[in-house]
Amino acid sequence: MHKLIYVSLLAALALPANAAEPSLADQKLLYSAPVRDSMTNLYWGDLHLHSQLSADAYILQTRLTKDQAFKFARGETVQADNGMPAKLRRPLDFLAVTDHAEYLGIYAQMALDDPRLDEWKMGAEWKELLRQGDMMSLALAFSDAIQTSEPEYLTPDSLRSSIWQEASAVADKYNEPGLFTAFVGYEWTSMITGDNLHRVVIYKDGAETASQMTPFSAQHSNDPEDLWDALADYEKQTGGEVLAIAHNGNVSNGRMFSPNRENGLPLDASYARKRARWEPVYETTQVKGDGEAHPYLSPDDEFADFETWDQGNITLGTDKEPEMLQYEYTRSALREGLRHEANLGTNPFKFGIIGSTDSHTGMATTNEDNFFGKFAHDEPSVDRTEKRMADQLQKIWRLVSSGLAAVWSEENTRESIFDAIKRREVYATSGTRIKLRFFGGWEYAQADVLSADYASIGYAKGVPMGGDLTRGPDAKAPRFMVAATRDPDGANLDRVQIIKGWLNASGETAEQIFDVALSDGRKKSWLTGEIPAVGNTVDSENVTYSNSIGAAELTAVWTDPEFDPDQRAFYYARVIQIPTPRWTAYDEKYFGAVIDPRAPKTIQDRAYSSPIWYTP
């Protein structure tokens, strides 16, 4: 039974510090990389977090620093901007603090009365607004300036370079090979007419290399093709490695996976190669909604309408139209990718799937009973659910306590995790820590998934999530091995599904969902084709649930019964938890808050594997 545990934030305050623990420097010296083998370990992290260095975060009262963000992720207690002590129940294994490239650190420098700002017209004007406490005017000025390339609006190069060197050095300070990985990163913030095209940029390198070139911002160009060219230039000039991760297609109004480039021309082979090269994974789930599927696109999917944001673009300046949706969601983009590959020779949307938070509080929180919102002004309080994000956007109750990036990597280092991301051996969760393995091949036996060494068998006989299959022996159907284990501090599992998408001979795409493992002995009705619901143990009054339903572990070896060896296809696993209380229910109980009747009180958290692609 899981009870209300907001107070768990405070538990560690009573624990004594371990004075014998070696210093960070000593730990780095003590570490030696283990011998590599075919096995990988599961690491949890967030590749999309903001601190006070992001202009929008600072305007909306975030004061937690990049240092504090890393400390919090490592399991230390910090004081949130609402005054509450905050601590993760379980630390993360890796983190990237990806502050916006546009005006990176400028507002924080204003508060320090940095004299360098006086030499820049915009800096001097904004510093005066901050001195007056006129945050609304400051916010409007930022909004007007962020998408312009007019010279007077651009941060002077010397100031940008200095701030970037300081910001990237913070990651090096907290990076401990084998113990905790701190990535250097930033966010490129393109939103043409309010349509989201944001990407976070993640470096494999440390500050010494990453700081040789300043971040490429949307003020340089709001076209992702120019961002990719900038990343190529970085690698050429520094010898480093870098990648980009797009997010929030659900608020792009059809722009994220559009069939057209930003110059209006159709996607071509060059575009497809560049996007596939620079964007190996996509952030499917986060605080601004879940983007795996949409009920309009997948009407037969009973789980498609999950934490859906479909009211408009990121600014709510333009309403959503139904025809936009197919170019916004993960599953439909994967389907579109098959079509593009057939026409262009390269799949521009061949991406793995991760989650991250996009929190702007400096705190990566994804537990329903420990959710600190997106901005400082929607941290826990009696009335937060009735506020609007940034005072004018979505109601706070719509925010999602999502998500996490799960990486199967040989070791917890920048190099190993970065390489795992590039090969797409990653998956997403909506905040829970479900353990998920997914392999594809031709020779898996039913007994393989029950072996204590099933992962080694998975690698030996096939490919892991993110991998590729080509035509098998005698054009036989592929077999998939999936194993899911519940979060040890969370809820049991309802079911495991394998979702297939394919391209038929007429050039049309389709999808189908296969329930491959069900808890509690449930079976699909031969008469209706329906599966009984797992049930619901949530006690709304006490905000509890029970693991008396569902399963702690679900496994399957499954063969595609409708396989056509001549059709391109993808397969990915989706794992659904039993119902549990949503963060809004905890707010209602803890604060006695009045919650909007439209706000959900329960949630079925989930995990999405990266796909495995089949190419004839």
Tell me what the structure shows:
The protein has 616 residues and is of the alpha+beta class. The protein has 2 domains: 41-109 and 169-429, Alpha-Beta Barrel (TIM Barrel), CATH 3.20.20; 435-615, no CATH class. The protein has 15 helices and 27 strands. Strand 2 (78-79) and strand 3 form a beta hairpin. The radius of gyration is 24 Å and the shape is globular.
In a nutshell, what does this entry contain?
The protein is of the alpha+beta class.
Mean pLDDT: 92
- According to DSSP, the number of beta strands is 27
Distance between the termini: 49 Å
CATH topology of the largest domain: TIM Barrel
The structure class reads alpha+beta
- Low-confidence stretches are 1-37
Shape: globular
CATH superfamily of the largest domain: Metal-dependent hydrolases
> How many structural domains in the coordinates?
2
CATH architecture of the largest domain: Alpha-Beta Barrel
Strand content: 15-25%
Individual helix count: 15
Helix content: 10-25%
As a whole number of angstroms, the C-alpha radius of gyration is 24 Å
Name the CATH class of the largest domain: Alpha Beta
Q: How many strands, which pairing sense, and closed or not: the largest β-sheet?
A: 11 strands, mixed
What features would you highlight for this structure?
alpha+beta; 23% helix; 6-stranded mixed sheet; globular; TIM Barrel; 2 domains; disordered N terminus
Secondary structure topology:
Elements: H1 8-11, H2 24-30, E1 41-49, H3 55-59, H4 66-73, E2 78-79, E3 85-86, E4 94-97, H5 106-111, H6 121-132, H7 135-145, H8 157-174, E5 181-183, E6 185-188, E7 191-192, E8 195-196, E9 199-203, H9 207-210, H10 224-238, E10 242-247, H11 269-278, E11 281-286, E12 289-290, H12 330-344, E13 352-355, E14 404-409, H13 414-422, E15 426-429, E16 435-441, H14 454-461, E17 462-464, E18 468-470, E19 479-485, E20 493-503, E21 509-518, E22 553-559, E23 569-577, E24 580-581, H15 583-591, E25 602-603, E26 606-609, E27 612-615
Helix pairs in contact: 4-8, 6-7
